[in-house]
């Protein structure tokens, strides 16, 4: 019985890494990097560009990899806890 529980914990650990990777890509790369840059591009095309919008976009892009790394790290830490 002990061996089966260990397999389940190991599978849950790998699932947490996979989930962390997917969430890191979605939040860090898509929501905080690509979408703001696309919005900035559309604002330029529409002639509605403001300094405030540029500053907010730069902050989001600057923090995107930090947030992405944090989300992935949480998934990896959960895996390490489950493997222990």
Number of domains: 1
Strand fraction equals under 5%
SS content category: mainly alpha
Helix % is: over 70%
Number of strands: 0
| Apparent shape | rod-shaped
Helix segment count?
A: 2
What is the C-alpha radius of gyration, as a whole number of Å? 19 Å
Unreliable spans are none
Give the end-to-end Cα distance, rounded to a whole number of Å.
Answer: 17 Å
- What pattern of helices and strands is seen along the backbone? HH
Mean pLDDT: 91
Largest sheet: none
Provide the descriptors you would attach to this structure in a database record.
mainly alpha; 0% strand; rod-shaped; transmembrane helix; transmembrane; membrane
Explain what you see.
It is built from 2 helices and no strands. It has one domain. The protein has 84 residues and is mainly α. It is rod-shaped, with a radius of gyration of 19 Å. It starts with a helix and ends with a helix. Keywords: Membrane, Transmembrane, Transmembrane helix. The chain crosses the membrane at residues 12-33.
TL;DR of this structure?
With 84 residues, the protein is mostly helical.
Secondary structure layout plus pairing:
Blueprint: H1 2-46, H2 51-83
């Amino acid at each position: 019985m002990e061996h089966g529980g260990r397999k389940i914990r190991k599978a849950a650990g790998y699932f947490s890494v996979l989930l962390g990777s997917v969430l890191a890509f979605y939040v860090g790369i898509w929501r905080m990097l690509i979408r703001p840059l696309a919005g900035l591009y559309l604002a330029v095309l529409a002639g509605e560009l403001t300094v405030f919008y540029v500053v907010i976009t730069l902050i989001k892009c600057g923090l995107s990899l930090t947030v992405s790394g944090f989300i992935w790290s949480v998934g990896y830490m959960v895996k390490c806890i489950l493997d222990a």
